[in-house]
Amino acid sequence: MGQMIRVGMADLNICRSPDAITTLGLGSCVGAVIFDPTHKIAGLAHVMLPDSTSVRNNSNVAKFADTGLEELYRRMIKIGAAKVGLKAKIAGGAQMFAFNANNDMLRVGDRNVEAVKKKLAQLGIPIIAQDTGKNFGRTIEFYPETGELLVRAVGKSVYKI
Dihedral sign, CA of 100, 104, 107, 108? Predict the structure, then answer.
């Protein structure tokens, strides 16, 4: 068993088997995992906001779906991931507050999920599993060796997607 690499909020990182990668406390944020099942390389982005172009101070590329996933993809290719055959799993994007869900500013979770899906589609990476929405936070761990994404949520048993 390798080490567990932690990814903070609005951050990203990559790992290769036998290491695994985790991020804690996904509320409206989305944890997007891109992985190469052949080379056992994975990357995880903790996406906080959908779109860097709508924010003036957008120097942190990892914070946004569009720039974060682009950077993750670039780093993975750089360490030897194949451009073809990459897959994705995503989790998070919860509606954490009981507001009127029609207000776009409060639908951050939904908007993050949509933005992540759109960017992955642009990169040509299929999403093979997801656990998004609902109203609870999640912590995720991804194991490049097996391709398993473990999801932990308070008051629920750990499950794999």
Answer: negative
Give alpha helix (H) positions in the chain.
65-78, 108-123
Residues 115 and 51: beta-carbon distance below 8 Å = yes
Query: Per residue in 134-147, is it b (16+ CB within 10 Å) or e — as a string?
Result: eeebbbbbbbbeeb
> Which two structure tokens, joined as six digits, stand for 23?
């991020």
The residues carrying an active-site annotation are 29
**Dist CA 7 CA 92 (whole Å):** 14
DSSP string, 111-127: HHHHHHHHHHHHHT--E
Sign of CA dihedral 150, 90, 111, 71: positive
Query: Which residues make beta-bridge pairs with 42?
Result: 15, 35
The radius of gyration of the chain's CA atoms, rounded to the nearest angstrom, is: 15
pTM (predicted TM-score)? 0.94
Identify the bridge partners of residue 57 per DSSP, sorted by sequence position.
none
Mean pLDDT in each 10-residue stretch from start to end of the chain (161 residues)?
95 98 96 98 97 86 97 98 97 80 73 97 98 95 98 93 96
